[in-house]
Amino acid sequence: MNATQLRDKYHLRLIRPNVGQAEKGKQVKLYQSECEINEFTDREIDILSLMAAGLTADMVADQLHISPHTVKTHQRNMLKKSGCSNGIHLVAHCMREGIIE
Questions:
Q1: How far is Cα 40 from Cα 50, in angstroms, rounded to an integer?
Q2: Residues 54 and 92 in one domain
Q3: Rounded to the nearest 5°, which phi and psi values hold at 67?
Q4: Which of 5, 73, 79, 96 has most Cβ atoms within 10 angstroms of its Cβ?
Q5: Does residue 47 sit in the same domain as residue 92?
């Protein structure tokens, strides 16, 4: 599979670093161009913050005193709203957008 086919399959865009940063010339940032964050509920932000801290769905459920099934439902809803493909992508994108720290 060539670079164009990969880009089309995963909706990735390559961004080259600034020309003035020659020492970082080999670094390339990847992001999914179609991932847009819609408004999340307060509970979704709470769950997202705990996900960013590395907690599993069971741990998040324990922390927030809700069922793991509810946590997974919130995660699924956030993925749909954002267009992100998985939890790691969601957390990374939300950090870049300043939704969570």
A1: 15
A2: yes
A3: -80, 150
A4: 79
A5: yes
Q: Please, where are the H alpha helices in 1-101?
A: 3-10, 42-52, 57-64, 68-82, 87-97
Q: What is the DSSP letter of 18?
A: P
pLDDT in tens, 44-86: 999 999 999 999 999 999 999 999 999 999 999 999 999 999 9
Structure tokens at 28: 């390339």
- Distance CA(9)–CA(26), nearest Å, equals 23
Structural domains in the chain (count): 2
Tokens 């995963």 locate to 10
- Report yes or no on 86 lying in a domain: yes
Q: Is the pTM of this model over 0.85?
A: no
Q: How far, in Å, CA of 65 to CA of 59, rounded?
A: 10
